[in-house]
Amino acid sequence: MGAIESIEAGPAARRAIPGTPVFDGDAAARGYALNAMCYSFNSAENRAAYQADEEAYFDRFNLTQEQREAVRARDVLKMIEAGGNIYYLAKLAGIYGLNVQDVGAQQTGMSVEAFRQMLLDAAHQQEEA
Amino acid sequence: MAQILGGVFTSHVPAIGGAIARGQEQDPYWSPFFDGFKPIHRWLATAKPDVAVVFYNDHGLNFFLDKMPTFAVGAAESYHNADEGWGLPVQKAFKGDAALSWHIIEGLVEDEFDITTCQSMLVDHALVVPFQLCWPGGGAWPVRVVPIAINTVQHPLPSPKRCLALGRAVGKALRSWQGDERIVVFGTGGLSHQLDGSRAGFINQRYDRFCMDNLGPAPDALTTISALDIVEEAGSQGIEIVNWIAARGALGEDVTELSRNYHIPISNTAAATMLLASEPTALEKAA
Q1: What's the fold here for domain A23-98?
Q2: Residue spans of chain B under pLDDT 50
Q3: What is the pLDDT at residue B284?
Q4: Nearest chain B Cα distance for residue A2, angstroms
Q5: Does A117 touch chain B (CB under 8 A)?
Q6: Average of per-residue pLDDT values in chain B
Q7: pLDDT 10s per residue in chain A (129 long)?
Q8: DSSP-assigned states of every residue in chain B
Q9: Residue ranges in A1-129 assigned as alpha helix (H)
Q10: CB-based contact (8 Å) between A112 and chain B?
């Protein structure tokens, strides 16, 4: 094991939690442009500019090709793979009128109705526990 | 001398702010959560705090990845809420207490916490929603605020043990403040929930109950595992329990649990609310 290999094996590689992205330094560096774009959506003016011309807005924030494709496809898991962090991505989702349950449904491959039901069912497990 | 009255611990799900904006507090979906604040309203009316020290996490309103402090203490004369991008109405501004903030900062650095200080700081739903829950009705906020933000966004996160120590150091600083402020401490966020990844929607009642059972009598029990262990137990955003842990630290050794509410689900979250009253220290009793 050389020093470079051990640097490449970052914290996320040392600790894998199934189905759970760990937003560490590697992800934060990889996702910087995408997250910066989403952070800009705190401003209504910026949200309007994005909606007026999405591709130009990608250019303005220098999104990578992978990030552009993930956003064009509205694919949250791919955005996360490209370094997106859910707190910033939620601002992008908001532009499309999607809440965290819509986003959760997409990531788990469920209908929104089924995702909501899963959460309601968790309450019954509470009673049985 | 200043007196620490107790701590309010609550989830801060943005959707709660949406429900308040739409006046849905008594709808069947929401009332099991909102009703948990009735004992807190009664306690606040009697305790009459004039300062709130709030441990919370910013979700990309004030802090971005360009500068991400592990612990940030507000030291402003006032704090503003702002557009977070997904439609919550912006709430009225909060009065700060800059003199008390700087006293806390002095104490923390003296105790070797290398914090970030913020003379300008936007506060997001994680501070605003708990205030709306505690003081509904839209009048002026009855307390000044000292916000203390803990990084729960970008790993590595501070350890739960360090967050408890931070809270204890804040409590020590508060107890050495010469003013006669009546202080309530807030810990916001949690409990178990996860917004991202294929495990989105994850809830863990066993772990949540462990946290609620131990928070008052044995807070160190919450700090025997790492931040990543908590992510595994409570979900990526369930890590917000570190705000509760820090707030608990500020309350001192002995507390009395006055109320507890636990309800699944609010949005993607196992929502919880607790009220712990601080027992006066020997010094306070003698005073």
Answers
A1: Protocatechuate 4,5-dioxygenase; Chain A (1.10.700)
A2: none
A3: 60
A4: 23
A5: no
A6: 96
A7: 333 444 444 555 568 999 999 999 999 999 999 999 999 999 999 999 999 999 999 999 999 999 999 999 999 999 999 999 999 999 999 999 989 999 999 999 999 999 999 999 998 875 554
A8: --EEEEEEEE---HHHHHHHHTT-TTSTTTHHHHGGGHHHHHHHHHH--SEEEEEE---SSS--TTS--SEEEE--SEEB----SS-PPPPPPEEB-HHHHHHHHHHHHHTT---EEESS-B--HHHHHHHHHHSTTS---SSEEEEEEE--SSSSPPPHHHHHHHHHHHHHHHHT--S--EEEEEEE--SSB--SSTTTT---HHHHHHHHHHHTT-GGGGGSS-HHHHHHHH-TTGGGHHHHHHHHHHT-S-EEEEEEEEEEEETTEEEEEEEEEEPPPHHHHH-
A9: 3-8, 11-14, 25-30, 32-40, 44-52, 54-60, 65-72, 76-81, 86-95, 100-108, 112-128
A10: no
Give the contacts of A74 (CB within 8 A, at least 6 positions apart).
Answer: A96
What is the predicted pLDDT for the residue at A6?
40
Is the Cβ pair A125, B196 closer than 8 Å? no
Distance CA(B187)–CA(B130), nearest Å, equals: 9
Indicate the residue type of B274. Answer: M
A residues 65..94 contacting B (CB < 8 A): 76-77, 80, 85-91, 93-94
- In this structure, which topology does domain B3-286 adopt according to CATH? Protocatechuate 4,5-dioxygenase; Chain B (3.40.830)
Based on the number of CB atoms within 10 Å of its own CB, is B206 exposed (0-12), middle (13-18) or buried (19 or more)? exposed
- The separation between CA B93 and the C-alpha centre of its own chain, rounded to angstroms, equals 18
Q: What is the pLDDT of residue B1?
A: 82
Domain ranges of chain A: 23-98, 99-129
